[in-house]
Amino acid sequence: MAPWLPLLSLLGLLLGADPAPPRQAADAQAREAAYPELLGPARFALEMYNRGRAAGTWATLGAVRGRVRRAGQGSLYSLKATLEEPPCNDPTVCQLPVSKKTLLCSFEVLDELGKHMLLRRDCGPVDTKVTDDKNETLSSVLPLLNKEPLPQDFSVRMASIFKEFVTTYNRTYESKEEAEWRMSVFSNNMMRAQKIQALDRGTAQYGITKFSDLTEEEFRTIYLNPLLRENRGKKMRLAKSIGDSAPPEWDWRNKGAVTQVKDQGMCGSCWAFSVTGNVEGQWFLKRGSLLSLSEQELLDCDKVDKACLGGLPSNAYSAIKTLGGLETEDDYSYRGHVQTCSFSAKKARVYINDSVELSQNEQKLVAWLAQKGPISVAINAFGMQFYRRGISHPLRPLCSPWLIDHAVLLVGYGNRSGIPFWAIKNSWGTDWGEEGYYYLHRGSGACGVNTMASSAVVD
């Protein structure tokens, strides 16, 4: 079976789809192509690869070989190419701590009536020394999947799936060219989701989400928070130890300490949502009243953090203390961009006395959460662009604890079918994940969940 069929079946989009044409028949129509014939499609693939990258980080084309076959009214090029990348030292650009130099890429480029469309892109380092705790090299955990040629009707089927995505998520694009570009991004993202699915050790399902037409760079720039990995911010005092005994499961959602899932929009303000969620829980536990608090106040009035460009929970706690409290969401509603600070001390409904840093021992975090309330944490958001449901457990080299880039809220923990998990409140709306929640493996330090845990203190 061609490799894209399990993918589409996995996503629940082509149940009952017809089987792919026999491999032998497809290969019989393919032929080796000479270098001059491959150069145009290869240059187009390179252009798509470099699109959205800053000058100075562009890859250059090396060796190219490939095959071509008829596909509808055009030609489908299956390319193998080497790309040369300059060393990458910017942690906001490099997802993995690898100075990439030579990449081996597989591209599928459709040429119809002189117009190119990139249908697939799979690239990986030719050689890398980065390993995880079990000495697995990245080359062993990042295989080049989907090496078989795509079926002749792939573009038709992909167009149908993309059209359904556009309808479901009410997408509009400025031009036909933009729509074609987004379809190529969408197609590539489906392959990325399949890779993430194949390498996940939990029960998570990855596939089409409302972010599926964004490039990795766009998603990271718009929704994530690079400041978390660059600077730990103001040093907080360590919380007093409360031991590590705890019930087998706990969920503050069932106990009235968690407000509804919110949506940060196209703004890297996750840090503000993580902190207000924690303060909401602390105020409820101390005062018995659950109030939805204002993230916009922090965007506008926290002059240390950078609003939609990112921030740190430790700075946000300090801002709340300095300002004199937080207003409610109703009084100071969310806009998703910076405005002039309009905080009014008279409208402040909640205050905090201090903030504390929590242990990196996950069992101690379990005990603290059960006794003290929801916890602000930061994680590496690897795979979350395509997360749909289940317990995520990425391989450590893919989800490094040193590359955290998203702040969220731990609201509970438990086990599903014997797999321990953290229940995490996200801030991307209820139309993402499990009604806005993310479930991450507990007990292995997955994605750095234990590296930046903190809480406000309400006396």
TrEMBL record:
It is found in: Lysosome. GO terms for cellular component: endoplasmic reticulum; intracellular organelle lumen; lysosome; plasma membrane. GO terms for molecular function: cysteine-type endopeptidase activity. It holds the Pfam family Peptidase_C1. Its EC number is 3.4.22.41. GO terms for biological process: immune system process; proteolysis. InterPro entries: Papain-like_cys_pep_sf (IPR038765), Pept_cys_AS (IPR000169), Pept_his_AS (IPR025660), Peptidase_C1A (IPR013128), Peptidase_C1A_C (IPR000668), Peptidase_C1A_papain-like (IPR039417), Prot_inhib_I29 (IPR013201). Residues 162-219 form the Cathepsin propeptide inhibitor domain. Residues 246-457 form the Peptidase C1A papain C-terminal domain. SMART domains: Inhibitor_I29, Pept_C1. Its main location: other. It is an enzyme of class 3 (hydrolase). It comes from the Eukaryota. It catalyses: The recombinant enzyme cleaves synthetic substrates with Phe and Leu (better than Val) in P2, with high specificity constant (kcat/Km) comparable to that of cathepsin L. Residues 1-19 form the signal peptide. Keywords: Disulfide bond, Glycoprotein, Hydrolase, Lysosome, Protease, Signal, Thiol protease, Zymogen. SUPFAM superfamilies: Cysteine proteinases. PANTHER family: CYSTEINE PROTEASE FAMILY C1-RELATED. Belongs to the peptidase C1 family. Thiol protease which is believed to participate in intracellular degradation and turnover of proteins. Has also been implicated in tumor invasion and metastasis. This is Cathepsin F. It comes from Ursus americanus. The gene is CTSF.
